[in-house]
Write the structure tokens for this entry.
Amino acid sequence: MTEQTSNNDSVGIIGAGWLGLPLALKLQEKGVRVIASATSQDSEDKLKQQGLNTCRLTLPDINSDCAVLQCQHIVICIPPGIRYGKSDYVAKVSAIVRKAELAKSYVKSITLLSSTAVYNGLAGEVCEQSELNFSSAKVEIMHQAEQTVLTSQCANKTVLRLGGLMGYDRQPGRFFKNNRSIPNPESVINFIHRDDVIGIICQLFECFKRTKTLNNPTNIFNCVAPSHPKRRDFYQKAFTNLGMPAPCFSEQEEQNGKLVNSIYIGNLQYQFKYPDILTCLENKTNLD
């Protein structure tokens, strides 16, 4: 483990993967003290090669001297893993929260990166105040993890429900491989570019630093691009931009698609880098 961090303007990133790693690098570029967690020696070495301070962490077991939990802010970037049959997501998040709540903890804020998949089973326009449909085990698990953070004793606790992630090596034209049909072409998409997720988190920390009131009674922010093109238009353009044959679409099965809006994201006063997702597809420099 590398040198310990002080709690002054420091951020612990738990889960330094596709999103967590560039987030750590961006914060460090801004002069923030960052500790990134790693689950193995190999992953720890790779993080160190990026110039990051690291801490070994294998959830749900957490050592009392874990450096990532001696930071002022904690960002939980671990994926639920539900689609892969994992069932320990709530236990992992709970372990982090319990350690952060200790009397001698340095932690002033916990931010959980959740997903708009928590709205599965709903139709039409949804927002942070929408009642969830718990008929799906996935929704129940994600909600429990969110509530673990939102009901914690931490001074600032925030849940960011992220839309579909895109950017750099995540090119939507490759989401449907082997001529697999794309369902519900007349429903809209709820996507966000990785750069905008990182920008929102950085802006959130600026609000914490200025002790700015977020005027959000839910402490939940839906993070999706303001534009919501139809799936047909979006994927046709995504395939074309990659020089791929036209996509195949299934029949529309949803009576009403789901459109994820936010009634609170404006409170952060964040300006989206990619507000128009269709235009974002044309920017090859951020999709390579």
Summary: The CA atoms of residues 178 and 247 lie 10 Å apart. The two ends are 33 Å apart (CA to CA). Residues 10-165+192-226+259-270 form a domain with the Rossmann fold fold (CATH 3.40.50.720). The chain has one domain: 10-165+192-226+259-270.
